[in-house]
Write the structure tokens for this entry.
Amino acid sequence: MGLWQGTKKIVGHIVDVRVDRWVDIDSLKDSTDYFWDQCKNLFRVQKSEHAESFEEAIDRMALSPEILAKQSQRFLMLSFFFALMAIALVIYTIVLYTLKNWMGMGICLSLSLYALSLAFRFHFWHFQITQKKLGCSVWSWCRLILATKRKNQP
């Protein structure tokens, strides 16, 4: 038994030399599997057995046409508010870029993307109320937006 073998045996008792125990490979693998399962569930489309129509939803919630019109107007105003907020945040992001404040720029850019997502959400809800149809697709919303732009052009 050489000097190296004896030293290795002594150090092995003092310091754990198994790297898989340091990193805790099993726990890391479990958390990675959980993360990927959650990502798959996030993008999985769930279809309901009975799709509720717009009229059934109005009857279930006892909504009047005046309430619907007021709510649609509120959604439209909220979408404009969040779109303006997103524009202001993008301008501020550009200012932070010129000042080379990278962390502030990243935070501001993510906030502007969040404001844009809220603007889309509220405008999409407004679109569904005006179309009197639940479950509209994003493509039908895009067609409406592109059609209004084409009509306004000479």
Q: What stands out?
A: Residues 3-41 form one domain. The chain is about 80% helix and 0% strand.
